[in-house]
Design a protein that fits this description.
This is SalK. Pfam families: HTH_67 (PF21863). It is a single chain. With 288 residues, the chain is mostly helical. It has one domain. Helices cover 69% and strands 0% of the residues. It contains 17 helices and no strands. Helix 9 packs parallel to helix 11. The model has no long low-confidence stretch (mean pLDDT 96).
């Protein structure tokens, strides 16, 4: 049974679940686990942990499914990374890192709480309505077993919901005719995306690439000379999110309005605790 939701309720829920999933990407625990598995390079480790559910895929598959990375960066690490650590070893290292990261950020008392167990149950219920069709990253993660421990089950469900929305979002970006870097530049211009220095440091692009993408957006009337969005740019980014919401509505409608509200409340509390514990680097979000 599905129920109508308040406007943007699913997006608000995603916006607190997604960062909980992402905490491990910025965790020293992941670096230690992946180094022990034979992958000391942070970029190679990121490609490996996110792609491992798909198996020992090549650089083309990673570039296609991750969307906003420079292919030249990807192919420097993939498929070589699988020779150092096969997907099964990477998934095991990731699970250990997630466990350690969440325990460190939230504390064992919170990890063992009824609220975490409740959030896990709600998130898993929402994920029941996710669909595999044309969603490769979601589909690959959906084939993985659900962890028994509630905090890991919550992280797993958050991962499913994140990748389900993300796969749909890429289809919307293609429909909007935004290439990978144009999508990043326009998102940063909203004030909610990664700061340019973080994009350039992690996505394999160069300043001249960023400037060229900015020029293309200005020529389309989407970006102002000062780097902010024009009215047309604001409208396009709004429409992109609304279309993504529509493609991602099934899990939240399946959970129902009351369940989505409760899951959002629980996940917000957990996220605030993680942020207070320093889950993410300073200055990562913004236009600077």
């Amino acid at each position: 049974m599905t129920t109508a939701l308040p406007e943007r309720a699913g997006r608000r829920c995603h916006n607190v679940l997604n960062p909980l999933h992402s905490t491990h990407y910025f965790s020293p625990d992941l670096g230690r686990e992946m180094a022990a598995a034979g992958v000391p390079d942070a970029r190679a480790a990121y490609f490996a942990v996110r792609a491992a559910a798909m198996g020992a895929v090549g650089a083309g598959t990673v570039t296609a499914t991750f969307y906003n990375f420079n292919h030249e960066l990807v192919e420097r690490h993939v498929p070589e990374v699988w020779r150092a650590a096969p997907p099964e070893a990477v998934l095991a290292a990731r699970a250990r890192a997630v466990d350690t990261t969440l325990r460190r950020l939230l504390g064992d008392e919170v990890i063992a709480s009824s609220e975490v167990a409740e959030a896990a149950g709600l998130a898993l219920r929402a994920a029941e309505a996710c669909t595999r069709t044309a969603r490769p990253l979601y589909a690959a993660h959906a084939d993985l077993p659900v962890p028994e421990e509630p905090h890991l089950a919550l992280w797993h469900a958050a991962t499913l919901l994140r990748e389900h929305r993300g796969d749909g979002h890429l289809a919307v970006l293609l429909g909007a005719e935004l290439d990978p870097l144009e999508a990043l530049v326009s998102h940063t211009a909203t004030g909610k995306g990664m700061a340019p220095k973080w994009v350039l440091a992690t996505r394999g692009w160069h300043r001249e690439d960023w400037d060229a993408a900015s020029l293309r957006l200005r020529e389309r009337g989407l970006l102002a000379p000062d780097g902010g969005l024009t009215e047309e740019g604001v409208a396009l980014r709004r429409e992109i999110e609304l279309r993504t919401d529509r493609l991602d509505r099934a899990p939240y409608e399946h959970l129902g309005a009351a369940g989505v509200e409760r899951l959002t409340e629980l996940a917000t509390g957990l996220l605030m605790a993680a942020l207070a514990a320093g889950a993410f680097p300073d200055g990562m979000i913004g236009k600077d």
